[in-house]
C-alpha cells in the first residue's frame, strides 16, 4: 500500500484540530477592513482551519482517483502537483491567519527534512514572506506607538516591508542622525489571534496525552503559553536583545543588532539594520562555508545556555543573516528561555552521565528525578539509554559526524513515531518545562544542519562550550573566539 503524501498529514492535523473546535460555536463576523490578521476570534479561526482540512481532503480524493489508472511517469506528475498545491494552500491560509497557527507552518518548513523540496519551499515563505499589512496600517501603528507618522519620525521610511512573519513585519528606515535601522511593527489584532489559538492548546494536548500517557500537559501548556505571550511584548524582547548584544558585542562571528530605545515601544522595535544573505542562499555555498555557518549556529545556541543562562528558542531560518567566513547575525529575540542555575546544572549532569561517564544507572535516576521518565517504566537501563542516546549521538564520539536529512528525520521519528521499537517507552515520557524550548531548538537546528549537510567534530566543539570540561579550542573559529574572550575580559 502506498504511503499517504506527507503534506496530507499536515492538513490532517490542522483539519482535525479545527473540526473538533469549530463545532463549539458559529463564528461571529470576521474582522474586515485593513486588519492583516484573518479572523482574530476563536470560532472564526477554527472554521478557517476546518475549511482548509475539507478542501485538502477533497483534493486528496480526486488525486487518488486520478492516480489509479496513471502510469509511473504520470503518477509522479500527480504526486508533485498534489504536494505543491496542498502546501500552497496551507502556506496561504496560515500566512493570512498569523499568530500561533502560522508558527506551526514555519516549524514544518525546516524541522521535517523528509518533506518534498516543493513543499518545504512553499512553506518556507512563512519564514519571512507572509502576506504583510498595508502600508497605511503600518504607518498608523507607528503613529499610535511613537506619536508621529513614520515619515515624521524618520528621515527616510520604506513603506514596503523587508520581511513579514507571524507577529509583525519589518521596515527599513533611516533615523534623523543618519543610522540605517530595521523597524519591526506588530500586526494590530495579532494578540487577540494568539489568545484564540492558545485557547485550543488544552484540546490539542488532550489528544497528545492519549498517544503519550506519560505527558503532564498542564506544565507544558503553561510553558508554551508563557513563551508565546512574551513574544507579543516588544519591550521585553528589547531588554533580552540588549542582554545578548552586550554579551556578544565585538564577537568575531556572532552579531546581535543594537536596540534603539528612543524608537521602540511595546509594539514597535527598532534596531540596527543588519546585512547578510538568507539561509536558502547559504545552502548553495561550498561545504566549507556551510560547515562554518553551522558551527556558528551551534556555538551561539548551546554556548549561551551555559555562559549566559539564556536560550534563543526560535531557530527558523528567517531569523538569521549570513556572511562568508561563518559570520551570522541573529535577528529575533521574542522567544527566549531564561534558565535557573539548577536547570543548567541538570543539563550538565545529564551530559556527564550519558556522554562522559557512560553511567546508565545514574542517567536513568536523573531523568526520573527530573520528571522525564516515569519511575515505574518497566524498561531496562539499556533500553532507556538506547532511546535517549539518540539526542546525544552527535557528541558521543570524538570524530566528525555528518548531520544529514536522514539524521534529522530520525530525530522527528524519535519524538512521534509510536510504531517504532521505542513506542512503549515513549508512552511513558514527559517533557518538563525546562525541556520544552530546548527540544524545539534542538530539532530546529538539526533540520537546518541537515540542509547544510554539516559535518563537524561536534564533540570537541561542545567540550569548549561545556563549562565542566572547558576544553582548549579545536577549530580556527574556536581559537579566534577564545582570543576575543581573553582580550575583552570574558575569561
What does it look like?
The protein has 491 residues and is of the alpha+beta class. Among the domains are: 6-128, no CATH class; 277-491, no CATH class. The chain has helices spanning 6-22, 42-67, 72-97, 99-111, 117-128, 135-146, 150-153, 190-199, 201-211, 217-230, 234-248, 279-282, 287-307, 341-356, 360-370, 381-388, 405-416, 423-426, 433-452, 458-465, 476-487; strands spanning 156-157, 163-164, 168-174, 180-186, 254-255, 268-272, 310-312, 320-323, 327-330, 336-338, 401-403, 454-456. The strands form 4 sheets. Strands 1, 2, 3, 4 and 6 form a 5-stranded antiparallel β-sheet that branches. Strand 2 (163-164) and strand 3 (168-174) form a beta hairpin.
Write a compact overview of the structure shown:
This protein has 21 helices and twelve strands.
Amino acid at each position: 500500500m502506498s504511503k499517504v503524501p506527507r503534506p496530507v498529514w499536515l492538513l490532517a492535523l490542522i483539519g482535525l484540530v479545527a473540526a473538533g473546535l469549530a463545532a463549539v460555536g458559529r463564528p461571529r463576523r470576521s474582522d474586515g477592513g485593513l486588519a492583516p490578521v484573518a479572523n482574530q476570534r476563536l470560532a472564526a479561526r477554527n472554521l478557517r482551519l476546518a475549511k482548509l482540512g475539507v478542501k485538502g481532503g477533497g483534493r486528496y480524493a480526486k488525486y487518488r482517483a486520478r492516480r489509479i489508472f496513471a502510469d509511473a511517469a504520470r503518477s509522479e506528475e500527480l504526486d508533485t502537483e498534489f504536494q505543491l498545491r496542498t502546501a500552497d494552500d496551507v502556506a496561504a491560509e496560515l500566512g493570512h491567519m498569523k499568530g500561533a497557527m502560522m508558527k506551526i507552518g514555519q516549524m514544518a518548513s525546516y524541522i521535517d527534512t523528509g518533506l518534498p523540496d516543493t513543499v518545504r519551499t512553499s512553506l518556507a515563505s512563512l519564514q519571512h514572506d507572509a502576506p504583510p499589512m498595508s502600508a497605511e496600517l503600518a504607518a498608523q501603528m507607528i503613529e499610535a506607538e511613537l506619536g508621529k507618522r513614520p515619515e515624521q519620525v524618520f528621515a527616510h521610511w520604506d513603506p514596503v516591508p523587508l520581511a513579514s512573519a507571524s507577529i509583525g513585519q519589518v521596515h527599513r528606515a533611516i533615523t534623523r542622525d543618519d543610522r540605517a535601522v530595521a523597524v519591526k511593527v506588530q500586526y494590530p489584532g495579532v494578540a487577540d489571534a494568539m489568545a484564540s489559538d492558545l485557547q485550543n492548546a488544552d484540546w490539542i494536548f488532550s489528544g497528545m496525552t492519549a498517544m503519550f500517557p506519560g505527558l503532564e500537559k498542564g506544565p507544558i501548556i503553561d510553558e508554551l503559553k508563557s513563551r508565546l505571550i512574551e513574544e507579543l511584548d516588544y519591550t521585553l524582547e528589547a531588554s533580552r536583545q540588549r542582554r545578548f548584544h552586550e554579551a556578544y558585542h565585538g564577537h568575531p562571528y556572532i552579531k546581535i543588532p543594537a536596540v534603539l530605545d528612543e524608537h521602540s515601544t511595546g509594539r514597535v522595535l527598532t534596531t540596527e539594520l543588519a546585512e547578510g544573505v538568507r539561509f536558502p542562499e547559504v545552502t548553495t555555498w561550498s561545504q566549507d562555508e556551510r560547515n562554518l555557518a553551522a558551527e556558528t549556529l551551534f556555538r551561539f545556541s548551546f554556548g549561551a545556555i551555559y555562559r549566559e543562562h539564556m536560550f534563543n528558542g526560535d531557530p527558523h531560518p528567517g531569523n538569521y543573516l549570513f556572511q562568508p567566513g561563518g559570520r551570522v547575525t541573529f535577528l529575533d529575540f521574542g522567544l527566549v528561555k531564561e534558565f535557573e542555575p539548577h536547570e543548567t546544572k541538570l543539563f550538565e549532569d545529564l551530559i556527564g552521565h550519558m556522554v562522559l561517564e557512560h553511567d546508565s544507572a545514574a542517567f536513568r535516576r536523573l531523568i526520573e528525578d527530573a520528571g522525564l521518565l516515569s519511575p515505574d517504566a518497566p524498561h531496562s537501563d539499556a533500553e532507556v539509554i538506547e532511546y535517549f542516546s539518540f539526542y546525544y549521538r552527535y557528541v558521543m564520539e570524538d570524530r566528525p559526524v555528518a548531520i544529514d536529512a536522514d539524521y534529522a528525520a530520525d530525530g522527528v521519528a524519535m519524538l512521534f513515531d509510536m510504531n517504532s521499537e521505542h513506542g512503549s517507552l515513549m508512552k511513558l515520557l514527559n517533557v518538563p518545562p525546562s525541556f520544552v524550548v530546548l527540544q524545539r531548538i534542538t530539532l530546529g537546528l538539526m533540520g537546518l544542519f541537515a540542509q547544510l549537510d554539516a559535518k563537524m567534530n561536534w564533540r570537541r566543539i561542545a567540550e569548549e562550550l561545556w563549562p565542566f570540561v572547558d576544553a582548549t579550542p579545536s577549530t580556527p573559529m574556536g581559537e579566534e573566539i577564545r582570543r576575543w574572550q581573553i582580550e575583552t575580559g570574558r575569561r
